[in-house]
Structures are given as C-alpha cells and as structure tokens.
Design goal:
CATH superfamily of the largest domain: Thiamin diphosphate (ThDP)-binding fold, Pyr/PP domains
Helix content: 25-40%
Oligomer: single chain
Strand content: 5-15%
Distance between the termini: 47 Å
Largest sheet: 3 strands, parallel
Number of helices: 6
Length: about 250
C-alpha cells in the first residue's frame, strides 16, 4: 500500500542507519532492576490494601503495571540528575532510592515520612536523591521541570532533568508552552510520556455486559498497562476483574 512505511522490512544498513552494538547488562544489574520492580509491585499492593481499609487518607494513585517503565528510565539517571513525576509517583520514589518505610510513612501521614507527613500520596519529595516530587495538577509538573532544567543550564552544570507525565497532560496548555520553551532554549531535559489511554476518553476497560435485572454487579476486564484508572478498576498488565454497577 502507498501509505505503508517505506522503510518497513529493511535492515538498519538499508536505511542508512548504523546499528549501535552495546553489551548486555551484567547479572548484577539484572537482579538489581528486578528487585526494584518487585519492590514497587509489592509496595503498591500493600498500599492498596491499606487504602481499602481506610488506613490511608486522601487520594491514592497506584503505578501497578508501570514498574518496568519507571525502573528502566531511572536506571539511566546519574545521581546528580533530577526526576519529576506526576501524582502517581510511589514507584519513582522507590526506584530513585527512597526507603520503602519512609514512603509508606508519608502515605500514613507520619512525621517521619519523606515530606514530613504533609504531602501524602501525591506529594512525595526527596531532594537528597534529586527526586523533586509528584504534583497533584495534571500537567503542572511540566513547566516546573523546565525551570529546573533552566537552572542547571544557567549554572552551567551537567545535571539533566527527567520529567514523567501521562498522556492526559498533553491536553493541557502547559504541555505546548513547555515544549516550545525547552526547544527554544535547548534545555537539558527529557520528557517521558507514560501512556494511560486518557486522551482517547478511554477508561481502560473492556466491559462485557449481560442483560441486567434490577441492580447488580457484573465483571469487567482490563488489559491496560497500568491497572489504576478512573473507573475504579484495579489490575495489572494481565486481565483482572473489577466491579461495574448497573441499574435498569
């Protein structure tokens, strides 16, 4: 077809691009990455249990299903680089090296939490590890991350900034404005989009609806990469069930 990618089926040399050969990571690196991903998954599962028991106040946004994305990205950061995230940032804090007990203490509003118990789930912060927090406003972290990168450029350091955000933030005015400034000023920043299907008005669930009689609960399945969404469904990258209430 005429619309088909003209480079499809060609090798790197045919496209004029030389494939860069890199050695595989060591076994120690593999084990370190896997341990971080497992820590994040188990932490989020326990946090979800505590929230369901009303032990955690406020909001709770889990990053179940995003473990590999978060850990893989933070593995590329140097100790002096900055990381900024959204309000779904438990995994980022853990991947950056903040102790699990300190993050959990913050969720419980304890004074020994990473934000002194005042931030809660959406506002984790650990400057020692250059993790500059999660932000409760969708797209609100974008211009702030650009400001951090501008400070690094202004002070002539080698520090880079990694800014993570969901695809829903691309609907915000801050997205286009920040991209323009970052490109115009050649800022040392990387913007990383974690797709959550929010820009397509999708709840991430494929719902099977039997004929309802009265008010009942029917199963729904999801194959979203991240199992937390606005429908109240909770799952992982594999299909799981969540309740959907129907009424006639």
């Amino acid at each position: 077809m005429a619309t088909e990618d003209a480079t499809r089926g060609r090798g790197p040399d045919d496209r004029g691009v030389q494939a860069e050969q890199r050695p595989l990571p060591s076994r120690e690196t593999y084990e370190k990455v896997l341990a971080k991903m497992l820590l994040i998954r188990r932490f989020e599962e326990r946090a979800g249990e505590m929230y369901a028991k009303a032990k955690i106040g406020g909001f709770l946004h889990l990053c179940i299903g995003e473990e590999a994305t978060v850990v893989g990205a933070t593995q590329a950061l140097r100790d002096t680089d900055f990381l900024m995230s959204t309000y779904r940032e438990h995994g980022q804090a853990l991947a950056r090296g903040t102790e699990a007990k300190v993050v959990m203490a913050e969720l419980f509003g304890k004074v020994d939490g990473c934000s002194g118990g005042r931030g809660g789930s959406m506002h984790l912060f650990d400057f020692e590890r250059r993790f500059l927090g999660g932000y409760g406003i969708v797209g609100g972290n974008l211009p702030l991350a650009a400001g951090v990168a501008l400070a690094s450029d202004y002070t002539e350091t080698e520090d880079a900034t990694l800014c993570m955000f969901g695809d829903g933030a691309t609907n915000q005015g801050t997205f286009g404005e920040t991209m323009n400034l970052a490109a115009l000023w050649h800022l040392p920043i990387v913007f990383m989009v974690i797709t959550r299907n929010t820009t397509r008005d999708s709840l991430g669930c494929r719902i099977r609806l039997p004929r309802p009689r009265g008010r009942r609960s029917v199963p729904a399945t999801t194959s979203s990469a991240d199992g937390s969404n606005s429908s109240g469904c909770s799952g992982t990258s594999t299909q799981t069930s969540c309740p959907v209430s129907l009424s006639t």
